[in-house]
Amino acid sequence: MDPVVPQLEDDLRRRRNRVMFRHRRIPVRMMVPNLFTLLGLCAGLTSIRMSIEGRYELALAAIVFAALLDGLDGRVARLLKASSRFGAELDSLADFVNFGVAPAIMIFTWGLGDTKSIGWIAVMIFALASALRLARFNVMIDEVKPKWQSNYFTGMPTPAAAIVVLLPIYLSHLGLDLRDARWMKNVILAYTLLIAFLMVSNIPTFSGKLMGERIRREWVLPIFMVAVLYVATLVTYPHETLAGTTIGYLAAIPFGWRRFQKRLDEDAAVEAEAAAAAAASASATPVAAGPSTGEPGVQPGKPRIVDFKAPDGRS
User: Fold this and answer.
1) Whose CA is closest to 111, among 204, 185, 208, 32?
2) Which residues does 30 contact at the CB level (< 8 Å), separation at least 6?
3) Which CB contacts under 8 angstroms, 24+ apart, belong to 137-140?
4) 153 dihedral zone (left: phi>0; alpha: psi -120 to 50; beta)
5) Do residues 118 and 189 make contact, with C-beta atoms less than 8 angstroms apart?
6) What is the pTM of this model?
7) Side-chain half-sphere of 40: how many Cα atoms within 13 Å?
8) Worst-scoring range by mean pLDDT, 37-51, 118-132, 301-315?
9) I need a surface site. Which of 33, 34, 124, 185 has the fewest CB within 10 A?
């Protein structure tokens, strides 16, 4: 029997016996992040309905709104000190619906419905990749790693993948409709599978989590202006803004990967130097020698072996 199985069974038994909340009275602040998550889930479900009805403008707006709420609920939970295991599990389930199922249905009903089974397989792989990505994130969340690595995701996060995979829809509103020819639909299929691969890959992508900790005082007003300008352009020119954001995000992935690898090499070099310094200091430390016998052939610190022989030459 696999020795890991009893450990998994014990862990599952402890989880089942664990109470959801430790206290009878729950602070109201603990509910605020979960309300954001539930609102995002409602937006994702609404996007699915709008996609089925062919109202893609509203479906896209609902996914973008869910992505904004997903970016807020975690930060609100940290600010209010209202993080909980229940909230983390609810957030993962909502992300699978909002950024796995909803974009897949939107892509299929918009441009891959004519491809029948192969189109459905492509969007299904995308949805399954989002589920695997979320499961891996939940497993890796307790791993101990250097703080600078918190500024990177392992693979493309599901909210970003949901916005990026809809690039063909943005381009169709800009005059480049990939549904005009059969081979163009094959491009949509390949692009959908590519984004699914990026979600489950180990390619590091920039997260920007550490940027929200401290900023310089002179950058406060420019950041406010850029944020207001981006929201204004997103409301006024949604497809142009989302298309530019998607292309810029995809173009930044190789640079983030290169920077991540460079930082890993620097850490490895520092560890190698520290190990070399430790080895040099250990070799320079004098070793106490045993008593010297003063006789040739006998090493200091080792016992002397004496060969007793009988008078007739026998040992």
Assistant:
1) 185
2) 80, 82, 84
3) 137/92, 138/88, 138/92
4) beta
5) yes
6) 0.76
7) 27
8) 301-315
9) 124
- The arithmetic mean of pLDDT across residues 262-283, rounded, is 82
Number of H helices, E strands in the chain: 11, 2
Q: DSSP code of 288? A: P
CA–CA gap between residue 85 and residue 78 (Å, rounded): 13
Round to whole Å and give the CA distance between 138 and 37. Answer: 16
The beta-carbon contacts of 230-239 under 8 Å, at least 24 apart in sequence, are: 234/64, 238/60, 238/61, 238/64, 239/169, 239/170, 239/173, 239/174
| CA distance linking residue 178 with residue 195, whole number of Å | 17
CA distance 115 to 188: 11
Rounded mean pLDDT, 80-93: 82
Task: Map out the domains of the chain with their CATH numbers.
Answer: 26-265 (1.20.120.1760)
pLDDT value, residue 31: 80
